[in-house]
Give the backbone structure.
Amino acid sequence: MIFVGLLVVPLVVGALVLLEMLVQRVRTRLVNGPGSAVRVAPAARAIAMSCLALGFAVVLQLTPINSAVNRIAGFNLVWPLQHALVLLSGYMTQLFFLFSIEPEDQLARRRGRRLAIPFVVTLVVVITLFLLAPDARDFVYGPAGRNESGGPGNPIAQSAFTLYSAYLGVTVAILTVLSWRWMSKARSLPFLRTGLFLSALGCGLSTVYYGHKLVHEVVLFAGHTLPWTESSVGLRLMPIAVTLATLGVLIGKFGDRVALRARPLTNRARETRIARRRVQAYRDLFPLWNRFVEQLPGIAMDPRTIDDAGNAPDDARYHLTRLLIEISDGVRQIRPHVPTSVYDQAEQLARQADLDAEQSDAVVQASVIRVGLDARLAGDSPVATGATRSFGPNELANEVAWWRRVAHAYDSPIVVQVHTDHLRTAGAEHAEQAASSPNNRSET
């Protein structure tokens, strides 16, 4: 436990130093502009003292430490020492925020001296109240103390806790307001805005924690007790509050830096996902392309061809784009062989099936392809309905989605029916033409 306690100090110091960096960044970017110089010395001194005070206070909270200190001192020295350190940390944190955002040094110092008045008064009164009742169970740590065991308390000790909680409650409430106010100004800085939001949330929960302590003391002053102990709420609430505030500091300070360094990894992962989707799209469209190549082998380009952008044949985008180009070329070659009746019947059956516009267009296009590839008969000139869609150079995803719908509709019942009816009609027309030809008449 002692070793764990010693590890707490650098963690606390590191978190508060990060808080200093976050506030310096806020002041630089939001208050004085990107090119302004940040005054470091006063804020650095304040945050250093705050770190040391809070670090020692956390170490004193550990049972082996506070037992050893009290045994050496001969009385409960830990309670006044720890609470004085926490009050000092709260005051120094206020100074840190003040020196970080106040552009005028003299004005910041005057405000800091004014903030010292409630701090000194609170510290003196709390220590005095402790000296008036040093043996009260309210000041005892562990299961024997009132915070963990519950029950009535000593009025003098209750007064000390009330003043202590009120001062720190007001302090974290001020920090909550400051974080929230800065967050509203950081709309163009997403990581800083997120960090300030988490910091405001953590400070807000801390405000609730100290408000809960005040309610406990007020209820005790009224001669009643709450059905739960004070520590049962505090031990759950404060770790969450500290975690949120620490995450806010980390994200606000290092979020964009980490994102910048991780961008190559995220870009590589994104490119991998896109390549996999393109490979899958290629596999989905390959059967349709293969039908074209079997009937129209001339549409297939040289597989060793490299496009103007220098994309090699092993590029998924290159292969997919070439596949789409060849399918489109095949459609343009077979459309003059498709009679108008195919378009009309496919549209009519799509309406009867209550298909939406996208599905209906895909069914019509698939019918044109199926009939055109199989019949290859001279027909009427093509009409606008069912014409091949055109896509821009930056619409590859939309073009792929369209042709995948067409490929999916190729074997649908509607397209099969249109194809079958066309073959029947074309066969009847061909038989009629053959029967009425001059050669058949002369033989008769």
In short: The two ends are 114 Å apart (CA to CA).
